[in-house]
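Question (not urgent): is this output format expected?
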Amino acid sequence: MGHLNKPSRQLHGLSPYVGRLASHRATDLINRFAKKGEIVADPFCGSGTIPLEAWKSGMKVVASDLSPYAIALTRAKLFPIPNLNQALEQIERINLLIDKEVKKIDLRKTPKWVRSFYHPETLREAIAWSEILKRRQSWFLFGCFLNLLHHQRPGFLSYPASHATPYLRSKKFPEKKFPEMYEYRDIKSRLLRKVKRTLRTPVNFNYNLPRIAKRCNASNIFKKTNKVDCIITSPPYMSGLDYARDNRLRLWFCGVDDWSAIESKLSPTRADFSNLMISCIRNWQEWIRPKGYIAIVLGDIHRAKKRIDVAGLVLNCVKKNASLLNLVSCEDQIIPDEKRLIKGNSGTITETTLTFRRK
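Got this back:
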């Protein structure tokens, strides 16, 4: 990949997200079904892979998701600070406000499970940075901050923990043996290093192109009077992945007090997923311009030696509820075991891309 692709690679790695679509898959679909200057919509945007690749390719973008973390991450990628100097200036301005904000924070109001991840002074600073970044809608810096929330490496903020999902690793790294891993860690120096890594190449995409990322149901992203040229999306893998639980600490800093309350919406059951897709398909066919494409990437579910054919389920929804859509292609791709989140005979083994075209 050439120099022009470096900014997108850096932004794709902004912060972990379970079950995200591979960027090369997103690029391939965008190049096949959309043209420069057209409107590309992703109603299940997740970590923002499709919206970022569409913007990079010179397209207008509309993205939505129900997860506040997904929207925060997508906004961070769609509205990056163009270069390092501007980012450093923003950090310095925000840093002047931190001491005053820290004095307002009462950790007794913070859930015990959140407090268990941090030195108290680190946590106070983290909450202060989080609140100021959200108020100022500094989404790129907020996305960088969310990445730093947990890991066992010294460049991150928590006590020793896993990176992708928040689990403490105190048994492997006991405090008596590794006292330095339980000391205070400041936010500013670590945020600076993260920003410098991410913006080592300036983001030279077209900032004049409209980009929208909003939190809403995938079936309500537009009114019926709106039209888009293309929909490319990858819906949640039903209850195959726990999107709220596995992102619970980052969700808390995004403002979600009880991650379990939104788990069923982010990781729907088979029945709920079917109803959601029926609602989506009925509306999506109205949004698409004539001869426009809808590409849906779906992972099958393997559990207890039983396979749920998610693509077949969605195809059936389209046949029964979308008379304006014609099936163009159905493409399967086997996911190698080493690249799957769950190894062996569980999880997702095959990704299927269903492509439809409006009559």
